[in-house]
Design brief:
single chain; alpha/beta; TIM Barrel; 2 domains; 8-stranded parallel barrel; two-stranded parallel sheet; 12 strands; binds 3-methyl-2-oxobutanoic acid; binds zinc ion
Amino acid sequence: MENQINIFDTTLRDGEQSPGFSMNKSEKLRMALQLERLNVDVMEAGFPIASDGDYETVKEIGKKIKGSTVAALARTATLDIERAASALEHAARPRIHTFIATSDIHMKFKLKKSREEVIEAAARAVELACSYYDDVEFSAEDASRSDPEFLYEIFETVIDAGANVINVPDTVGYALPWEYGRLIANIRKNVPNIDKAVISVHCHNDLGLAVANSLEAIRNGAQQVECTINGIGERAGNASLEELVMAIATRQNDFRLSTNIKTEEICASSRLLAEITGHGVQPNKAIVGANAFAHEAGIHQHGVLNNPLTYEIMTPESVGLSCNRIVLGKHSGRFALGKKLESLGYKLNKDELNQVYIRFTTLADEKKVVDENDLRMLLSEVIEYKKVSGDSTVSQA
Ligand code: KIV
Ligand code: ZN
């Protein structure tokens, strides 16, 4: 579809590359099956030359995954490409993803190669990759800090060599949304054969701008975004899949674009990753944090209980949660307290609710969250008090 953005998930490669997030073969396979349920267009399964374990894992994922393209990463070296090609031999939809750095700082201090040598290596790698499979992606590492004229030249060369996806990474998370958007627009304008390739973006989050940069790139013509579940990845991470997808879905009238993601699988994917890696997300993390659909403030609770749209821009169900969470704490009011007691089966008159509420606020000042056991305890205190004074009417439904 024309207006569709392809989601390239790199949780199992860039995400796994970050300290403390490594996964073994069976964990990666479990995660890959969940990514398939989430319906990502492409999953990058690993970097086969990096280790025998990664090679075997990519191979296994290639055997099992039928619904998504499986990509394997390779530098431009012949051995890397051959190893990636071999790891993908059973994949239903294989993609080799080859990359080389194009910024002056990387070419001089890391690669120790001239521009001519880098272009030649890129073209050779893409040609070799195309001799194995039709689907070949080329990334210009550190593209956002590269000379744009050099970028246009290398992209034109690799597209001529057969690459059908060209990726423009903001490798060090340095770009600002408007300049990154302009870079994508200029690539479209200045690479003569760009209509033969999909433009992909890959943003890191060092300045907290990975999602904003990716969205601005989409507005300027990028058709594929690379991202990870929970935004994990090198250093401050990659653009978060759930934030990108829900921004596009929630603001559809603005973007006029869609993705193939089954958004109801988002929370399950986030939780599985947290369970496997042992790293949960912070409570206030957009979309998947424990507080993303939770309300404690009285005014908000009143609004949400009457109509969720007052304070929720998407439904919890749309990301796979069964309902929002009304959290009782010191900011909550009588309305939410009464509703909670009702849901526990207690119908109180106004005076009784007031008495429970007075005790509730004292407790809430001491405790961060007042739970169901606390409420039952408060209720029994009020019932006891009313019995003694002879006017208990608290009824349990
Ligand atoms: O950040 C980056 O530049 C990468 C490339 C390998 C795509 O991860
Ligand atoms: Zn990266």
